[in-house]
Amino acid sequence: GENVEQHPSTLSVQEGDSAVIKCTYSDSASNYFPWYKQELGKGPQLIIDIRSNVGEKKDQRIAVTLNKTAKHFSLHITETQPEDSAVYFCAASITGSARQLTFGSGTQLTVLP
Amino acid sequence: EPEVTQTPSHQVTQMGQEVILRCVPISNHLYFYWYRQILGQKVEFLVSFYNNEISEKSEIFDDQFSVERPDGSNFTLKIRSTKLEDSAMYFCASRRGTSGDNEQFFGPGTRLTVL
Q1: Which of A58, B27, B77, B92 is deepest in the core (most CB within 10 A)?
Q2: Do the strands A10-14 and A107-112 form a parallel or antiparallel pair, or are they unpaired?
């Protein structure tokens, strides 16, 4: 089955700097790659997603890039703010009607004021 | 904004007891999921449910687990005889399921502690 690896496990940046989180996946059939943000005591919230027919997608300070050949995708957060501090999960979805998600292990992002 | 809700937020049980975790998905959604996250580990897929039946399940979802949509609004996960290793955060999610729609909306989770 699908396996998603995520790095780094923890990341500290100064407010205003950029943060990059990287993921790799194993199953070339995966075609949907969401990123979730999880704040303490809450469930994962989708922040951005990308489909395999697109190489890059941007939404304000957040962008995701996908390299299908290398099977990796990355989350980029620019101009980080303290409220960006949370755990971020990447995921991949295998084609099929159920579209269950396979998650990475998470990155604890801390934005230092 | 519609959201997925889960009850209880925290459940403590003795090993061997049955537990039922409850979820109310978003009302016009058609696909429902359970995931779990053991402390410090990945979020893992358990089961998906569509049209009143299981559509996919993982190796974790053995005979001790069952799911049900008893009344058209609730979606439940039952663990018949809990084990210590069932201690985890359990997340319910739902997806609208229309063409091209992939987003899964997650609930806040139920923390299950098996003693």
Answers
A1: B92
A2: parallel
Contact B92, B64 (CB under 8 A): no
Tell me whether residues B48 and A101 touch, CB distance under 8 A. Answer: no
List the one residue out of A82, A77, A73, A44 whose CA is nearest residue A62. A77
Query: Which residue of A45, A51, A101, A108 to mutate against B (max B Cβ within 10 Å)?
Result: A101
A51 contact residues in B (CB cutoff 8 A): 102
pLDDT tier for residue A52 given thresholds of 50, 70 and 90: confident
Closest B-chain CA to A33: B102
- Between chains, do B102 and A99 touch, taking CB under 8 Å as contact? yes
pLDDT at A16: 97
Q: Do A44 and B106 touch (CB under 8 A)?
A: yes
Higher pLDDT, B71 or A21: A21
How confident is the model over B35-89, as pLDDT tens digits? 999 988 889 999 999 989 999 999 999 999 999 998 878 999 999 999 999 999 9
CA B94/CA A52 separation, integer angstroms: 22
Nearest to A93 by CA among B64, B102, B71, B52: B102
Q: Cα(A85)–Cα(A87) distance, rounded to whole angstroms?
A: 7
